[in-house]
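Hi W.,

Here's what went into the run:
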Amino acid sequence: MSSTTSTTSTTSTLGFAILALLARADSTGYEIASRMRNPVAYFWTASHSQIHTDLQRLLSAQMVAYDRAPGPGPQDKKVYTITAKGRDALREWITTPPRPQPERDELVLKSYAAWLADPAALMEMFRTALHRHEERLAEYERAWASLEEGAPPLFGTPKFGNMAALRCGLGYERHRVEWCRWMLDQLSRSLNPSCEAAKPNDE
Amino acid sequence: MSSTTSTTSTTSTLGFAILALLARADSTGYEIASRMRNPVAYFWTASHSQIHTDLQRLLSAQMVAYDRAPGPGPQDKKVYTITAKGRDALREWITTPPRPQPERDELVLKSYAAWLADPAALMEMFRTALHRHEERLAEYERAWASLEEGAPPLFGTPKFGNMAALRCGLGYERHRVEWCRWMLDQLSRSLNPSCEAAKPNDE
DNA sequence: ACTATCATGTAACCCGTTACATGATTTA
DNA sequence: TAAATCATGTAACGGGTTACATGATAGT
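Here's what came out:
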């Protein structure tokens, strides 16, 4: 019999993001949402509404299960667990190559059109962007330092995943900081094109 | 009178991407789609169907206009132009700070869950990712070189935008290449944890 | 008294992808 | 003769955001 439940359940990427979190620790839907807003898991966020609906889909695909527990509100809270089936699906998904996702970056788009706009206003925009990236970078650096304190991360432990994702975040923010600084430099030159040689080193 | 057409037209980001392209050269919808698939404008893509519908919206908001010209197919082709109103809206949009967009990156998500999966399969995945990024990087480097050949880019000319976007692309691909190499190194260590110091350079 | 945190859910809407539909010209 | 390129459009569907709706407890 093909009762191995060929559920046609084309679990969305968010579904796997949820499974990846549940594989580390059982959580309520609410907790999953908040964990996604925390340092390491920045790279896949979702609103609580979407998480709840997705959990229901995962539930009907038998990839998660839950235990009821008395909740603060009118309804019980549901503490979700990943099932064996869910873990298998997740494990399989991890190593299937993601197809190249179209990159959409509003700031880069704006930079592409920057030649039409006011340089001073542009500089302010890039200054705020720079600050955001510097803050993120500092945050990641703190997280990295605290990771390196403990034992070296073994493959097979969640810590390996933390370092992998963090390492990417660090590189990304460094690249962004660098680019914003370069943009500011270019823009400031366009404002006062007087001293062009008196620039010690740009990159 | 408020007949300055307060069209409530909250032109989408794609709308501005289209305007940014039209500000450089008049195009048909088809051409806009193909221009988005070209080196410099990779950072904002869209399918032709979406572009056509968006052009209709921009048209009703009087941000673009078009001239009919005999087309190859059954219908005339429409060569779109940006209007003064469109250019004003674009110019204003460029300097309004984009609100931080949630970063969603499937490969990073997979790396976060990598501790659960098979190292060898992971290595293959990261190897193909590495190749893709190396190719992109080479492409960007060629484009950069050809940009540097001509006259230095003046603010106020499209070339400034090309360099700004390209510079970002270069930094991004370099960061990605670096991260993929680091991942491969980590994974290979987990496969044979014997010689940890004797690793000169893979690739 | 008000706000924040914890906790669950539904409904409307927007943006984007994929598939459907048509058809001339050029190239392999 | 088959395909790729040029060229325009519609329709269905999926994923994501925002807003709506409820309500207890803890802190300011």
